[in-house]
Design brief:
Layout lengths: L3 E2 L2 E2 L1 H4 L1 H31 L3 H12 L3 H27 L3 H31 L2 H41 L3 H17 L1
Antiparallel strand pairs: 1-2
Length: 189
């Protein structure tokens, strides 16, 4: 298969770095979605939230499908203003505050939505278009993992080579110590 067509490289090859970046970002979101439940549970244990969480889960089980969808999407509506604050903070060069706002949006939003999805899953999946969207999400996740896997494998291989190189030449600690001695001897001279 030729690399170039009369109109330049094949679109898939031309946009491959962008596709890998999008796949990576998608996997970060999917990882957050999958791993936020323990963090949300830990935060919920810090405050007397367990009864409220149980109450919400119990009520969610009895909601009709579209009411469950509204409940599931409610964190997005509540957290959007926080993203606006983050953008304002970045625009005014308040980098740490803006980053903390975005981190809060991700941690709280993804964690709460994961809890609400688990509480409302049967009703949500009874909505045809939502069930197809979830199936598409799962397919995109498989695609993203396949796209990112060669990059991850290359990084693992590079890490192994670097570690082997350090171990072959006296170990990492000794190399750092030698570098520090050279730096400090130059400073004294």
């Amino acid at each position: 298969m030729p690399d170039d067509t009369p109109h330049g490289p094949a679109p898939r090859r031309r946009y491959r770095p962008v596709l890998i970046l999008l796949a990576f970002l998608f996997l970060v979101e999917a990882w957050l979605w999958g791993h936020m439940a323990p963090v949300v549970r830990w935060i919920a244990d810090l405050i007397p939230f367990e009864r409220f969480k149980h109450w919400v889960a119990e009520r969610a089980r009895h909601l009709p499908p579209y009411a469950a969808l509204a409940l599931f999407l409610s964190p997005l509506l509540l957290l959007e203003p926080l993203e606006g604050i983050a953008v304002w903070a970045y625009a005014h060069k308040h980098w740490i505050f803006g980053s903390l706002c975005l981190l809060a949006v991700k941690l709280i939003g993804v964690g709460v939505m994961a809890f609400l999805f688990a509480a409302c899953e049967p009703q949500l999946l009874s909505i045809g278009w939502f069930a197809r969207l979830v199936a598409l999400f799962l397919k995109v996740k498989v695609w993203a993992e396949a796209e990112v896997e060669p990059v991850k494998a290359a990084l693992r291989h590079l890490r192994a080579r670097v570690l082997a190189e350090f171990q072959a030449h006296g170990g990492f600690g000794r190399r750092i110590a030698a570098l520090r001695r050279r730096i400090f001897s130059r400073n004294r001279a």
